[in-house]
Amino acid sequence: MRRVLNRPELGAACGVVAVWLFFAGYAGGSGFLSQAGAATYLEIASELGLLAVAVSMLMIAGEFDLSVGSMIAACGMTISLLCDRLGWSLWAAIAVAAVLSLCVGMVNGLVVTRTKLPSFIVTLGTLFILSGSTIGVTRLVTGRTQVGGLRQALHYGSAEALFASRIGVFSVSILWWMGITVLASWVLLRTRFGNWIFGAGGAPDAARNLGVPVARVKITMFMTTSLSACLIATFQAVKFTGSDVLRGTGKELEAILAAVLGGTLLTGGHGSVLGAALGALIFGMVQQGIVFAGVDSDWYKVFLGVMLIGAVLVNTYVRGRMVEARR
Questions:
Q1: Looking at the DSSP assignment, which residues form a beta bridge with residue 46?
Q2: What structural domains and CATH numbers belong to the chain?
């Protein structure tokens, strides 16, 4: 029992139950309880969850990455432009986007670890650079801010099967979400590198004195968050058969919020990728639940903010009870 109470994701699990019960009672008859309803909020949660898992690991390592939202747009547009304008194979375009994301993540990590500047500032600058570059290059090449035509790209069928197919009414992205969450949990809890992540975020000086390559750990985590953004971009580009320069806007804050909902501390050194996945599930249920509840779209963000603050309060209350139970 004590081991369960010590788990950081316990609060998020309680939040998931609370949010589900609320919408089941308030909008259950409108489709929230149906299989199709579950498929919609799980699909939303899966794409955010893929990003939140990587972001939570970076936060545990003591850093933030605000550039992941603009990275989604940059990678998606890279894929679309290479296929639509240059006639590249879709797989080759995805590979180039992945390399681009890894390079940006490495630069972010190197600047943060070499200059000691706050990652908040460094990645905020990267956000603006990527966002402006994506809009500027796309307008320069196409004169538009949206590029389509991916369905005619070489090897689109195999990419669609992997990134945009469905198992019944459920999106294949849910399997990706579950698989990557399990893999990340194993890395974080069962490997030496996972211990290094906790050490780099919780007590970096002590970890460094014990031989932990703190800078290398942080650079690796920056590259991981960027690569996860590229994966989201690939899902969206294949699913919508094109890209938009504004796609991914605000996703960096949603991912951080999901990680916090899942029990990851903003100060680093403590958290859980399973909690981040559950935080994304809360976000998906709230986002889709208010649609089933028939709330006026003018009040969408207000209602969303209230529900999310409520979930955080439930999380905080449960964690407080956990601390008292340990005393």
A1: none
A2: 8-325 (1.10.3470)
